[in-house]
Structure formats: C-alpha cells, structure tokens
Amino acid sequence: MTDFAIRPEDLQDTLAAALGDRVQSIGIALGEVTVHVNAAHYLSVMQTLRDAVGCQFEQLIDLAGVDYSTYRDIGTDGPRFGVTVHLLSVSLNQRVRVKVLCPEDDLPMVASVNELWNSANWYEREAFDLYGIVFEGHNDLRRILTDYGFIGHPFRKDFPLSGHVEMRYDAERKRVIYEPVSIEPREITPRIIREDNYGGLN
Question: Terminal CA-to-CA distance of the chain, rounded, Å?
Fold first, then answer.
C-alpha cells in the first residue's frame, strides 16, 4: 500500500485512459473524482475500475439509490432515478465516486455489481427496497428493511411521510394486523421563541 494519496488530477488522467469513451465525464469537485457513466456501460466500467492497472479498486464501500425528481424544480431535467457508488483502492490509496442514471423512470434498472464486489449485495437490496431500483443479475433481490408485505418504496420523494398502512397488535385476533393510515395529514410550522437573554447573550 502506498503511504500517500494520489493527486485527483492524476487519478482523473488514469481513469480517462483506462475507461475511454465508455464514460460520459470524469470531474473533480472538492478534491474528489466523480465518474459519470451511461447505464449501458456501467458493468464494464466497474469491472475495469476493479481490475485495471492504476485503478485496482478492491473495495466497494457504499452504494445508494437517488431520486432526482425534485431537480426538475430547479431546471434540471433527465431520468428520475440513479445510483451512486463509492470505491476504494487500498493498495493505491485512492477513491472514486461513480454515478449512473437509470434509463427508465417506470422501471428503474441498472446492472448488479454484486458479482464484482460481494459488499454490494445488501446495498443493492436496500436501494431496491427503498427506491424500487432493480439490479439486473442480482441473485437475491428482495426487500431488506421494510416488511415482506410492504407496498411502495418509502425513499421515493412522492411517497407520503405517513405511509399508506399502519400496523398494530390486535388483542382479539392475537396477531399483528395492517390497516389504512389513520393519521390526518397536516402541515406543522415550528413556533420560534426568542428570549432576550438566552444563553447569557445580549
């Protein structure tokens, strides 16, 4: 393992040479390198990032789904769902972020990288559960955080905060039952209390 971190500009050049025209862009922001890749090339790019000399990203340390639906409010249009992955090379002491957008909003889907890094297993299941993103090729893609009978994907920005159903224990039936949510939706505006001498300040 190297005892120093590689310069982001050098890593950017290495990745550009290794990945070629399979990536949409490779940028640097706040000292971190981000690779944007099309869903069609996602799996092959990830394989290269793991295996190529100068890349050698042995560890997938995070994978998360993203819902970009509210980006349209600020004038950014494009696919609604995406996946962001963080990779680490222990041997070369370098990191990279990879972003891929799911081509279809109705059935968001990208390839699974579970065969490349087995740490992706539960991360991909979480993104499937919470966002409804399907990871093609994952051998055990099922919910991991919500209940087996759960309907919908609770991290989607159009999912109601109160959910659709609630569960409780029914003493008469002696089991847990599911019912429509009984909470009335309401907007809560916080009340601000100001004190002249709060904390000893004037």
Answer: 55
